[in-house]
Design brief:
Number of domains: 2
Strand order of the largest sheet: 4-7-8-9-10-11
Largest sheet: 6 strands, mixed
Radius of gyration: 20 Å
Length: 275
């Protein structure tokens, strides 16, 4: 039987490992990723875990928004990173993640919440590659960047997160703001280019809404890709591809900021994120 001392050490090790993957994390993200759900009980356990790590000098903290009421966020110190050195290196081969925490920004924080949500649902911290790992070049090269043409120009798109579900790769777009018209045009061109390939590199694209300003992304995609006008001059091949994107390749979900649970918004098929 595992003792409480061993159990506590296990939780602290998992928290350090999550921080190595994400760069920094909040109490909620740690609770969700390690215990599988985020409620009062697991947040208390996460807080106890962080207090011990802080006391041992393995993490540093700041408040989200630098206010007393803001949620605690933590990053690894050099000492904390050394606890993991025998089996994992930090993204970009950094010695600590103090700078990641110091320069925390809303998009990465939202992406970390999405990663923690799925990792917690599966109780698997190695379910894919975080936003930090992708930006640091630690994700597989062939998945981490896709080149295509848009408006007669060469373009490149990089995922916010990649999930690997038993070899089926899901590309994640974290929607924490309104997409400009130009960015939306590029997004649609990316979707069409990726899934017009004979063997697409990824299974599907998951859009996760993390802020109210981004809530219309599903409606915008549906309006762009749904061809209901009988006199629509769009070539049949493109109409067929767009219908396939809506039915099989695109999912839109909403992330509850309190519980860090993902909830299906659409697609046409009702299954949502199958974990």
């Amino acid at each position: 039987m595992t003792s409480k001392i061993q159990q506590g050490q296990h939780y602290r090790s998992k928290a350090l490992y999550l921080l190595a993957r994400l760069g920094y994390a909040s109490t909620r993200q740690i609770a969700k990723a390690i215990w599988g759900h985020c409620d009062i009980s697991t947040r208390k356990m996460a807080s106890r875990t962080l207090r011990r790590l802080l006391a041992d000098g393995h993490v540093v903290e700041r408040r989200d928004g630098d206010t007393v009421t803001g949620e605690r966020m933590v990053g690894l110190t050099k000492s904390g990173a050394l606890q993991l050195a025998h089996f994992v290196s930090l993204p970009g081969n950094c010695e600590h993640t103090r700078d990641r925490l110091r320069h925390a920004h809303s998009h990465r924080s939202a992406a970390n919440s999405v990663y923690s949500s799925v990792a917690g649902d599966l109780l698997d911290l190695d379910i894919g590659w975080s936003e930090l790992e992708i930006r640091a070049g630690d994700a597989p090269h062939e998945l981490a960047s896709f080149r295509f043409r848009c408006n007669e120009q060469n373009q490149q798109k990089i995922p916010d997160i990649l999930f690997d579900f038993a070899g089926n790769i899901t590309w994640v777009e974290v929607e924490n703001n309104w997409r400009s018209s130009n960015d939306f045009v590029k997004l649609v061109a990316f979707l069409r280019a990726m899934f017009s390939m004979e063997r697409p590199l990824i299974q599907d694209v998951l859009f996760v809404i993390t802020a109210p300003g981004a809530k219309t992304i599903g409606d915008r995609l549906r309006a762009e890709l749904c061809h209901n006008d009988p006199v629509d001059a769009t070539p049949r091949q493109l109409r067929t591809l767009d219908a396939h994107l809506l039915a099989e390749r695109i999912r839109v979900m909403f992330l509850d900021a309190d519980s860090l649970e993902l909830k299906t918004v659409f697609p046409i098929r009702e299954s949502g994120l199958v974990l």
